Amino acid sequence: MGIYLNNPGVELLLFGTAVTILFVGLLAPHLRTRSRRRRNTDIFWFSSLHFFSKELSECRDPKQMMDQSLRGASQMLGTQEGCLLLQEEGGQGKVHFSTWGLSTQVSERLNRDTLRRFMLSSGERWGALMVFPDLRGPEIDTAWGREPVFNEFCEVLRSEGLRTLVVVGLQVREKSYGALLLGFRDLRSFEPQELRVAMAVGNHMSVAIENWSLNRAAERRDGELKILHRVGEALRATFDLRAQMGILRHELKGLMGATNFGLALQDTPEAPLEVVVPFESGGPQGTVQGGPASSLAQYVQATHQPLLVASDVQGTTQKLGLAPMNPRIKTWCGVPLNFSDGSMGVLALADMEREFAITKSQFELVQLLAQEAAVAVENARLFKKEQRRASHLALLNELGRKASSVLNPQELLPNICRQVRTAFGYDLARIEMMDSRQGELCVQAEAGYGPELIGRRIRKGEGLSGVAAETGEPVLANSVVKEPRYIPLHPGIRAALSLPLKYREELLGVLSLESRDSYVFSQQDVLTLRTLADQLAIALHNARAYQVALEQAITDGLTGLKTHRYFMEALDREWRRSTRAGYMFSLIMLDLDDFKQVNDRNGHLEGDKVLTAVARLLNEQVRQSNVVARFGGDEFAIMLPDTRTDQAEILAERLRAGIESDRYLAAHGVTASFGIATFPVHGPTQEEILRVADSGMYLAKHQEGNRVQVASRALVSAQGEWERQLLEAYLGVTMKRMFSTGPEAFEHYLERFRNGVLKGDGDAPSLLDTVTALAFAIDAKDHYTQGHSQAVSRLAAQTARQLDLPESVIEEIRLGGILHDIGKIGVPEAILNKPSRLTPEEYELVKIHSSRGADMLEPLKVKAIERIRGMIRHHHEMVNGMGYPDKLKGESIPLGARILAVADSFDTMVSERAYTRGRTMEEAIEELHRCSGTQFDGGVVDAFVRSLEILGDPRVSANIDTSVIH
């Protein structure tokens, strides 16, 4: 053993073994630590990739996906600098750009167009993974120095201080979605596991963007199909081509943003392709409506194939040998529309700002949309043709109807122009009437030219219409540039047609039609229009004959002025016009002073000459727009449109002076009194304006005549008793001109009575005379009730005398009989004059006359009037309490009212009515006795009968005066 140990070789072996054992013992913990660390790193990467994938799958948009990707990749690979580019739809969609840890300047340079496109294509160029160990190393310049874009790319990264770069291409099934760039400021070497992690990150990102793109594409496709369905339904819902084009333009804008929409169509298979809908923003070099289609649209028509030019539109047209397109167009596509008659159309889209603005999927959608559009457009065109044919027939029928119904040329001619223009689709239409005295045509109606053309005169032989008037034959110029006789009346006209309007051998005028399109007048249209012109000539002849007769009907045969009826109609029209437009108008009413003496002294023939002289003087002094009428007898009226009160006063004063200074009129001592009123200053209605003007005229006569007076001004400025007299004159005039009854009339007169008393001294006998006159006026309005109030007054007074009542009371009852029906001014005239029995509702309206009659007398503060008011209010009460308005009974009813009730009922029973014959006196007396004690006071009935037996019927013995007190 010792020998063995002392052997040098053995010693060396033992020493080496000992060292090895010691080294293994020392290295084993390090190896175990390194193995454990690697396992931990693998677990970390695996876990990070798992969470990374989960986070990407939960992203809802590319921006969120990019932020998650950059942050996750940087954390797993230990870098603080990175850049990510994503492009939707595999190289066709929108580009998203994001950086991590890079400066703003570097980010902006990388996002410029050249470098952005270089980085987007890096996946296709370098594959799924590319590592540049040292961006500053000489091998970079050696290997890549010949690529300027790469040199610029490296220079930008080096300026940021980066040394090592990892480029991960984002690709799925040969679709490139962009690239992930991770930079390191220090030189880095990568283990295989790290590179696999980088590739895994790229794969996860590629799959995520692929899934997102597919989902988005599916959603978009679903939305596009819904839009396609909606557009199809909307297009089929209308036959209006313009409406269809509006729908297409709106929907395509919604699908493709600012893309322009255009449409070109052929009218027939042989016709050229013309623009129907031009691009909205084509600019000065774009296509125009009605002009030839673009060269690319004509190419689509010739090839019958859809075409998409995503970029370099000018270069494409040059390669195809076509005329240059609008240089503003960056992207263009066109789809053919095929129609059943062999004609075609082209639906075109253009973008003026971007190339590649229309994707392939959008192009496919446009082709589907074009199929729907083709069907809708053809339906619209067929419908338009049928509509055009039907409108032509309808127009001929309508004109034939108007020839026998519409006899006013001012209404007929403009309507014809509008109908012809609409029915035939021409741009302009006019009718020129022949002025035989001047030998000229004068434009009387137009459609499309503008109102300034009205009154334009054209001589015979001048222009197409002048030639048609001279020859009596139609003149057609389907291209006016080739027709030297054409005289333009409107810019842009390319075709025109003039047709003479002849009735038998008489030329009445010319119908002219013009269009902005050439060759639009077909032979069929000309034939139809000639028939229309013949019918229009008949209509004009009838209208002219009617106008002559109408002029005779509305013209006073003596003076040559307008009639009262015409004046009232003109006043109503002017009031309606002024009410709508907020204009003023004035009325002048004048009455000749002392004209009755002319008739009395010189006879009516000389009086007629005076009236004619006054009419001539009025006509000479007023404007053509004024309406001068003989209002009645020796009264005249003048309506002044757009005239203020002061202007009317100036004219009235000039007319007054002219009448006063006329030798012939002065020889007869004739002057005139003038009244003036202005709307809306003196009243809101034409009736009120007329009343105020009439009142002013009578106020002028009240002041000895030969003067101009504005009634309202006098009423405001006058004072005291003089104002009372003026008010009485005003009320007298309004009664003289009372046109109707009703609630408004009641309120009007009640207000006048109140004003008269308030401005006086409380005692109103003159106003009582006015009220009495008003009662007579109401009584006289109905043929069947004329004299009724006076008859009741006489019967009641005779009965009161039989009852031995004091004379003062008898006089009150007599006046109560006169006034008992004054409240009927508040009952509508249609009810008062109804020729048949009243309905229950109408009877209820009549019953209010008793209470309104009492209200009418309320302003007259006189004790006797107060008692008369009671009679008027209660003269329809019944002693059994069943009367109205207060259902009084027995002696609670005033005695005068009980007497009036008997007298009123008796006269009503014995008088003839439209709906019943009058009873005999015996029958009426028998009815009074029958109702005695229920409706009538028995004592009053007995006294009434005795008075008839003793004194007789006062209605027969007296001459009842039914005239109105003026």
List strands and helices in order, with pairings.
Elements: H1 2-6, H2 8-57, H3 62-77, E1 81-87, E2 95-100, H4 104-110, H5 113-120, H6 122-126, E3 129-132, H7 138-144, H8 148-159, E4 164-172, E5 175-184, H9 192-236, H10 241-256, E6 260-265, E7 274-277, H11 295-303, E8 307-309, H12 313-319, E9 331-338, E10 344-351, H13 360-405, H14 409-424, E11 428-435, E12 440-447, E13 457-459, H15 463-471, E14 475-477, E15 495-503, E16 506-515, H16 523-553, H17 564-581, E17 585-593, H18 595-602, H19 604-621, E18 627-632, E19 635-641, H20 645-661, H21 663-667, E20 671-679, H22 686-702, E21 708-710, H23 711-717, H24 720-736, H25 743-758, H26 765-780, H27 788-802, H28 807-819, H29 829-832, H30 840-847, H31 849-857, H32 863-874, H33 895-910, H34 921-930, H35 938-951, H36 954-957
Parallel strand pairs: 20-21
Antiparallel strand pairs: 1-2, 1-5, 3-4, 4-5, 6-7, 6-10, 8-9, 9-10, 11-12, 11-16, 12-13, 14-15, 15-16, 17-19, 17-20, 18-19
Helix pairs in contact: 2-3, 2-9, 3-9, 9-10, 9-13, 10-13, 13-14, 13-16, 14-16, 18-19, 19-20, 22-24, 23-24, 24-25, 24-26, 25-31, 27-28, 27-33, 27-35, 28-32, 28-33, 31-32, 32-33, 33-34
**What is the number of strand segments?**
21
What is the global morphology? elongated
Strand order of the largest sheet: 13-12-11-16-15-14
Mean pLDDT metric: 80
Low-confidence stretches: 1-6, 714-720, 758-764, 958-966
Strand percentage lies at: 5-15%
Q: What count of helical segments does DSSP give?
A: 36
Distance between the termini: 177 Å
Helix and strand content put the structural class at alpha+beta
Main pleated sheet:
6 strands, antiparallel
Radius of gyration: 53 Å
Share of helical residues? 55-70%
